Amino acid sequence: MVSVADKRVEAFVKQRIMDAFPQDGFLGEESGTQMPDARVLWVVDPIDGTSCFLNGLHTWCLSLAILADGEPVIGVVYDPNHRELFHALKGQGAWLNDAPIAPHPAATVKEGVMGVGTSHRVTPALFLPFLDALLSDGGMFIRNGSGALMSAWAAAGRLIGYYEPHMNPWDGLPGLVLMREAGGLSNDYLTNDGIRHGNPLLLASKTLYPQLKNMLCHPLP
C-alpha cells in the first residue's frame, strides 16, 4: 500500500539529501536506488505504517538509516504524532529525544510484551510457530502496524524485543542500529545481500535474545 504522502515525503527527503550530499547513494521504498555503490548509502521509508496513517491510527513513523562502507552506522525513527525522535550513532549510544535509552531489563519473556510483525511475503507457517512458543512460555505480543516503530520501542525498553520473519532494509536497519547502540543484540541482517532482498530481524536485550532465538522455527542469518 502506498499513498500520495509516501511519495511526496520521500521525494522531499531524497532531494534534501542529494542537495546536501550529492556524492552519497540513496535507497527508498518508493523511488528505489540511486548510486547504490556509493561509500555512504541513505536508506529511507517515508511512512512506515501507511495503512495506519491512512486509517487515522497514530502508529506510523519515518525511518532512516545510513550505511558507511556497507556498515549500518546511523539509525533514526521519528514518530511525529508523539514528537518522539529515536536516534543512534555507532559507538555513541542511542537516544529518545535527549534521553539515553536501553533495552527492557526482563529476565524472561513473561516480564514484558514482545513486538512482532509479518507480511504476505512469508507464509503463516514461518511465523505462527514463534507465537505459539512465545505464548507457551507465558509471553505476550503486540503488532501495531509499523515494524520500524516497534523496533524503536524495543530499543527503548517499552517492548522486550521485536521479531519479523522478513523485513525490508528501510524498515529493519534503523531499529537494528538503535538496538545495538542501546546495548542489545540483533541477528546479522545484512548477510546474503540483505540490503537488496531483506531478511528476518530479531532484536532484544543480551539476556532475552538467546531465549527468543530458540523459539524460532528457522535459522537466523
TrEMBL record:
UniProt entry keywords in alphabetical sequence: Hydrolase, Magnesium, Metal-binding
Cofactor: Mg(2+)
Positions that bind Mg(2+): 29, 45, 47-48, 171
UniProt EC number: 3.1.3.25
A GO MF label: inositol monophosphate 1-phosphatase activity
InterPro entries tied to this protein: Inositol_monoP_metal-BS (IPR020583), Inositol_monophosphatase-like (IPR000760)
Broad class of enzyme this protein falls into: hydrolase
Top-level taxon of the source organism: Bacteria
GO process annotations (BP): inositol metabolic process; signal transduction
Sequence similarity: Belongs to the inositol monophosphatase superfamily.
The protein's name in its UniProt record: Inositol-1-monophosphatase
Gene that encodes the chain: suhB_2
